[in-house]
Amino acid sequence: MLDELKQQLDDEIERLTHELQVVLPTAIRKAVEHGDLRENSEYKSALERQQFVQARLNHLTRRRAELSKIDLAEIPSDRVGFGSRVTVRDLKTKDEETYTLVFGDFIDLDTGQISMASPLGQTLLGKKVGDEVALTLPRGERRLKIKELTTLPEMVKQD
Question: Which of 20, 75, 116, 144 could form a disulfide with 121 if both were Cys (CB 3.0 to 4.6 A apart)?
């Protein structure tokens, strides 16, 4: 999983770097050729995209650096931590959901990835199979029981 995350970040960094160094300069050059820059929407749009891409690249580079510092030996093998895939059962509805805890602000609910910094991520961190947790939400409290846990060290051993 760790290598997969690094590869995803590397791929996006490479794509955005190409856009920043090749695609956007070409778009800006073409927009400049149209003349008056004060009313040139193509020029303004290209500059805004350039700023966005640069900010995104900075963010991804920081996340990539964080991933490089991870020492698998420091990640618990029996508790929820970074990279853990955890299945929880809602004690009220009996619904089960599976999440994978990831770094930073990354959240992709379609694939079940949630940030360790999110309220749910914070609630699950350090817990074991069988533990019950309470998550306070604006619409009330949600009680969950941890049913299954696969930690990052376990996943790496399987590869």
Answer: 116
DSSP-derived 3-state class of residue 139: coil
Nearest by Cα to 92 from 48, 42, 144, 43: 144
Calpha distance 87→94 (Å, rounded): 12
| Beta bridge partners of residue 104, listed in sequence order | none
CA angle 154, 134, 103 (to 5 degrees): 45
CATH number of 2-69: 1.10.287.180
Measured CA to CA, the distance from residue 23 to residue 121 in angstroms comes to 38
**pLDDT tens digits, 25-44:** 999 888 888 777 777 888 88
**Mean pLDDT confidence for 104-127:** 81
The enclosing H or E element of 156 equals helix 152-158
pLDDT digits (tens, 9 = 90+) for 68-114: 777 667 777 789 988 889 999 999 999 999 998 887 666 666 678 88
Q: Which residues touch 152 (CB under 8 Å, ≥6 apart)?
A: 1, 2, 72, 75, 81, 82, 83, 84
